[in-house]
């Protein structure tokens, strides 16, 4: 109680503003580290990708695991929203983000393109299949075509899975290269997970 009273007596508005500015700065990206928002988006997406990979691998291994399709679609839809938010946030912070060489930039561009293309193709197939509405954890978010649209299902069947595996391969390469650079002492992982001091 006495400590709080002393804090009130010795209140320093400049210090308060400084603390608020510091919190704001940690939310944003800078040229050394990614900020809190980028980190939350990155690791949320990483967790969602793990679920997507697990469910897809399971039913490719054993068709009995097609019961995981509902979870796959629900997490995939949430992942698509996260991707859109992340692309917008990255565009807003493009001048402040840690710099990378051309190969790194092309790798990130490939990841972003595939992260948008894979769920979009999945949505096209879902709608064109006319097999029912898309439900995300039980909540209907998109209706279905009144009857099957052949070209939509063909695009989905041809592209969704292949693009998804390509995306997983790129993501695996991204992880491997991050570890390699970290071992070399470049502290790449610290940009997204380490202290920002």
Automatic annotation (TrEMBL):
Location within or outside the cell: Cell membrane
Name the residues that span the membrane.
Answer: 40-62, 74-94, 106-124, 163-183
Keyword set for this entry? Cell membrane, Electron transport, Heme, Iron, Membrane, Metal-binding, Transmembrane, Transmembrane helix, Transport
Membrane topology listed for this record: Multi-pass membrane protein
Family annotation (Gene3D superfamilies): Transmembrane di-heme cytochromes, Chain C
* Gene Ontology biological process terms, A to Z: respiratory electron transport chain
Please classify the protein's predominant subcellular localization into one broad category: membrane
Q: Which domain of life is it from?
A: Bacteria
Q: Which cofactor(s) does the record list?
A: heme b
Q: What are the GO cellular component annotations?
A: plasma membrane
> From the Swiss-Prot or TrEMBL record, what is one GO molecular function term?
heme binding
- InterPro entries found in the cross-reference section: Cyt_b561_bac/Ni-Hgenase (IPR011577), Cytochrome_b561_oxidase (IPR052168), Di-haem_cyt_TM (IPR016174)
Q: Name the family.
A: Belongs to the cytochrome b561 family.
PANTHER family attached to this UniProt entry? CYTOCHROME B561 (PTHR30529), CYTOCHROME B561 HOMOLOG 2 (PTHR30529:SF1)
Q: Identify this protein by name.
A: Cytochrome b561 family protein
Q: Which organism is it from?
A: Kingella kingae ATCC 23330
